[in-house]
C-alpha cells in the first residue's frame, strides 16, 4: 500500500471545482480583510504565521466565490429533487464530454453569456499521436490535472501516483458521467494496473472523507449533487471494495491532490512530466487510436469528435 510521506501537508482539502481555467483574480481591500478576520483587535493579537494562514483562507474563499459566479452556480444549494426538476430546462446534459459542446459543460449545465454558440475548429492531430499530443491538442488547457500532478510531485509522491493525478480527469473531454471508469478504460492498455485502479476508483472515493490524509467531503458537491445527495449503490460498493484493497491509498491520493481550489497564478506546462510519462506510459508506435487496443476507438473519438458516424 502506498502511504503519504511524513512531510505531506495534511490540511483539509479546499472545496472548489476547477472548471474555470482563465481570467480570475482576487482584489484585496485591507479594510474588508481585517473586518472579515474579526476586526483590528483580533488581527493585532495574531502572530505572523496566524495572519498569513488567515489571509490565505480569506483569499481562497474570495477566489471560490469568483469561480462559482463564473460557473453559473445557483445562489443557494438545492435538493436532489430540485436539481432533477431542471433537467429539461438545460441546453445540454450535465454528463456530456467537454469536446462535444460549446459552453454548458460546467458542473451546473448552464451555458454562460461569455460562451460562444458554436464549437471551435480543432487543430489536426499528428498521424501517430502520442499522449503529449492529446494533452496539447485535445485536453488543453487541462489546468486542473496539471496542478494536481504538480502538487503530488511537490509532495514527493511516487511517480506512478503523479501520473495517475495527471490522467485522472482528462477523460471528461469524452464523458463526464462516470468519468473514473471511462478514464480507466482509456488508459488501461498503457499504464500499470495500479495506476488504472487508482484512476477508476478515485471517482467513488471523492464522496467519502478520510481524515487520516486530510480529505473532507467537498462542500461544492452540495451545489453540484444536492444537499441531500446519497451516492448510489454502485458507488458505495466501489468505495467499500477500494477501501479494503491493497491499492486503496493510490486512489485516495488522487482525491487528496484533486485540487478543489483553482490557482490562476500557478501555471504548469505538461512538458514538466515528459520523463514521468516516458517511464510509466506506453505510447504505442502506431499512435494512440491506431494500435488495435481495446481503447483505440476511444482515442480516435477524442482525436476526431466531428466525425458524423
How would you describe this structure in keywords?
single chain, 309 residues, mainly alpha, 43% helix, 0% strand, globular, disordered N terminus
Structural features, described:
By secondary structure, this protein is mostly helical. The protein has one domain. The chain contains 14 helices and no strands. The chain has helices spanning 30-36, 40-44, 48-71, 80-84, 131-139, 143-154, 159-167, 179-187, 193-205, 221-224, 233-243, 248-257, 274-280, 296-303. α7 packs across α9 (193-205) and α9 crosses α12. It is globular, with a radius of gyration of 20 Å. The termini are far apart.
Overall structural class, as computed from helix and strand content, comes to mainly alpha
Q: Quick one: biggest sheet?
A: none
Number of domains: 1
Described by the principal axes of the CA atoms, the overall outline is globular
Instruction: Write the H/E string, N to C.
Output: HHHHHHHHHHHHHH
Instruction: Quote the average pLDDT.
Output: 83
| Strand coverage percent | under 5%
Count of runs of 4 or more consecutive helical residues: 14
Proportion in helices: 40-55%
Q: Spans with pLDDT under 50 lasting ≥5 residues?
A: 1-26
Q: How far apart, in Å, are the first and last alpha carbons?
A: 44 Å
- By DSSP, the count of extended strands is 0
Overview in brief:
This protein is an all-alpha fold and 309 residues long. 43% of the residues lie in helices and 0% in strands. Helix 6 runs antiparallel to helix 7 (159-167) and helix 8 packs antiparallel against helix 9.
Amino acid at each position: 500500500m502506498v502511504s503519504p510521506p511524513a512531510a505531506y501537508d495534511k490540511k483539509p482539502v479546499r472545496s472548489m471545482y476547477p472548471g474555470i481555467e482563465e481570467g480570475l483574480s482576487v482584489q484585496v481591500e485591507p479594510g474588508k480583510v481585517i473586518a472579515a478576520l474579526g476586526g483590528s483587535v483580533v488581527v493585532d493579537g495574531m502572530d505572523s504565521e496566524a495572519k498569513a494562514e488567515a489571509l490565505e483562507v480569506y483569499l481562497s474563499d474570495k477566489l471560490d466565490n469568483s469561480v462559482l459566479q463564473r460557473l453559473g452556480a445557483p445562489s443557494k444549494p438545492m435538493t436532489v429533487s430540485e436539481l432533477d426538476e431542471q433537467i429539461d430546462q438545460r441546453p445540454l446534459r450535465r454528463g456530456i464530454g467537454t469536446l462535444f459542446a460549446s459552453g454548458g459543460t460546467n458542473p451546473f449545465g448552464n451555458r454562460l453569456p461569455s460562451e460562444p454558440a458554436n464549437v471551435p475548429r480543432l487543430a489536426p492531430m499528428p498521424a501517430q499521436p502520442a499522449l503529449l499530443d492529446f494533452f496539447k491538442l485535445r485536453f488543453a488547457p487541462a489546468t486542473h490535472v496539471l496542478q494536481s500532478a504538480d502538487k503530488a510531485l511537490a509532495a514527493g509522491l511516487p511517480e506512478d501516483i503523479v501520473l495517475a493525478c495527471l490522467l485522472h480527469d482528462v477523460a471528461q473531454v469524452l464523458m463526464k458521467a462516470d468519468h473514473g471508469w471511462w478514464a480507466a478504460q482509456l488508459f488501461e492498455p498503457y499504464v500499470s494496473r495500479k495506476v488504472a485502479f487508482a484512476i477508476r476508483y478515485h471517482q467513488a472515493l471523492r464522496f467519502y472523507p478520510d481524515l487520516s490524509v486530510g480529505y473532507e467531503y467537498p462542500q461544492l458537491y452540495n451545489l453540484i449533487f444536492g444537499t441531500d445527495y446519497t451516492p448510489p449503490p454502485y458507488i458505495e460498493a466501489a468505495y467499500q471494495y477500494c477501501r479494503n484493497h491493497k491499492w486503496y491509498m493510490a486512489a485516495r491520493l488522487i482525491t487528496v491532490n484533486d485540487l478543489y481550489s483553482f490557482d490562476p497564478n500557478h501555471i504548469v506546462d505538461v512538458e514538466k512530466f515528459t520523463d514521468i510519462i516516458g517511464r510509466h506510459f506506453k505510447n504505442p508506435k502506431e499512435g494512440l487510436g491506431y494500435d488495435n487496443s481495446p481503447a483505440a476507438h476511444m482515442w480516435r473519438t477524442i482525436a476526431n469528435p466531428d466525425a458524423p458516424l
